[in-house]
TrEMBL record:
This is Kynureninase. GO terms for molecular function: kynureninase activity. Residues 120-247 form the Aminotransferase class V domain. The lineage of its organism: Bacteria, Pseudomonadati, Bacteroidota, Flavobacteriia, Flavobacteriales. It comes from the Bacteria.
Length: 425
């Protein structure tokens, strides 16, 4: 399609967009009494209107049933998390038994590393990407310290080549081969939070396992955003937060994937708790741990139902829409945003360098843009004029045109506000 930088053209695209009506399902903040253009769904998704009803249901059950809500609520609390299995399995490409919801993201990654980072002899090293999200970096450092290793010896970062913003697949595979029989674990972010680069999960997983390592993925920026086939790709484990592309609310519960081939391994260590115990015998308060079959066996504590309620509202919306429809719009609206940036670039002296890969296979719903010749003042101008975006030092803005609630007209309006912010200095 040949794009045009006009309001009429943007409105025409919106009129043909089968997901356009989902904007009405969300609550938008306002700036200057006008609905914002929201580009930070890669950090915190907007609140779906249906969320309140799901939370109110739990609150009403608590008020009317108290402790009996565990068994007699409309959605009984003791198995509330089981309602996620079917819709989440479709979002991440898993079997229903391979997914569950519990805790928060870094907590879950730590718990999964108990099972899947088992350094022994010379096989103790972890491969991760350079400039991983800081929480992952802190996690790696503390995990290797716990096992008695020094981070500078045990953590191997795959680096970008000089002058390049993204990591080449060939360099990932070469590093896995180089570390070889010293490699215990590969754990990478499926989508890099800074650049928006999407990694080849299937190929990297295969290479890591061929080297004798376990392979896991931090899917914080991937779940609900990219096409995932975790079961078919033979991924050992993964975890993701729910509050970015899946709009479950600030700091909310994390999803977990454990491949079915690990479900019956009695030698696989894990930290146990009573909510991971045999469901049918859980309330017998038995002294010995008998894990639930499947990913649910990694659960530890009684689950926070009030936190799960908004997440359930969201995954049921995803079930209505389907990942194929989301991805189709994601690719189209992201391409239109890219076009708008290039068009505005022609009209101003500043230069916009998009550091997110141009290849559609290596990017999703995020464009990270270097604003050469501009500084923090432009970001401040955008925020004051109703464009909610994200600033990363030294001068990068991250723009996520989330397909569920961003419109093509939003992309056009953003371009006009951006141009005015530069020319009006």
């Amino acid at each position: 399609m040949t794009f045009q930088n006009t309001r009429e053209f943007a409105r025409e695209l919106d009129s043909k967009d089968t997901l356009n009506h989902y904007q009405q399902e969300f609550i938008f903040p306002k700036v200057n009494d006008k609905r914002v253009i929201y580009f930070t769904g890669n950090s915190l998704g907007l609140q779906p209107k249906r969320t309140k009803a799901y939370i109110d249901e739990v609150m009403n059950d608590w008020a009317e049933l108290a402790v009996e809500g565990h068994f007699y609520a409309e959605k009984p609390w003791w198995d509330y998390q089981e309602r996620f299995a079917e819709p989440l399995s479709k979002i991440v490409g898993a079997l229903p038994s391979e997914v569950t919801v519990m805790n928060t993201l870094t907590v879950n990654l730590h718990l999964l590393m108990v099972s899947f980072y088992q350094p022994k002899g010379k096989r103790y090293k972890i491969i991760c990407e350079e400039k991983a999200f800081p929480s992952d970096q802190y996690m790696f450092q503390s995990q290797v310290h716990f096992h008695g290793y020094k981070p500078e010896d045990a953590i191997v970062e795959i680096k970008r080549r000089d002058g390049e913003h993204n990591i080449r697949l060939e360099d990932v595979l070469a590093k896995i081969e180089e570390v070889g029989d010293e490699l215990a674990l590969v754990l990478i972010g499926g989508v890099n939070y800074y650049t928006g680069q999407v990694f080849d999960i299937k190929t990297i997983t295969e290479a890591g396992q061929k080297a004798g390592a376990k392979v896991g993925w931090d899917l914080a920026h991937a779940a609900g955003n990219i096409k995932l086939e975790l079961h078919n790709w033979n991924v050992d484990f993964a975890a993701w937060c729910s509050y970015k592309y899946m709009n479950s609310g600030p700091g909310n519960a994390s999803g977990v994937f454990v491949h079915e081939r690990h479900h019956n391994d009695p030698d696989l260590p894990r930290f146990a708790g009573w909510w991971g115990h045999n469901k049918e015998r859980r309330f017998k308060m038995e002294p010995n741990f008998d894990p639930v079959h499947g990913a649910g066996g990694w659960q530890v504590s009684n689950l926070p139902v009030l936190s799960l309620a908004p997440y359930l509202a969201s995954v049921e919306m995803f079930a209505e829409v389907g990942m194929d429809a989301l991805i189709a719009k994601r690719d189209h609206i992201t391409s239109y945003l890219e076009f708008i940036l290039h068009e505005i670039d022609k009209e101003v002296e500043s230069t916009f360098e998009i550091i997110t890969p141009k290849n559609p296979e290596e990017r999703a719903s995020q464009l990270s843009v270097f604003l050469h010749g501009e500084g923090r003042s432009l970001f401040d101008y955008l925020m004051k004029n109703g464009v909610i975006t994200d600033w990363r030092e030294p001068n990068v803005i991250r723009l996520a045109p989330v397909p569920l609630y961003c419109s093509y007209e939003d992309m056009y309006d953003f371009g006009q506000i951006l141009k005015k912010g530069i020319l009006g200095k």
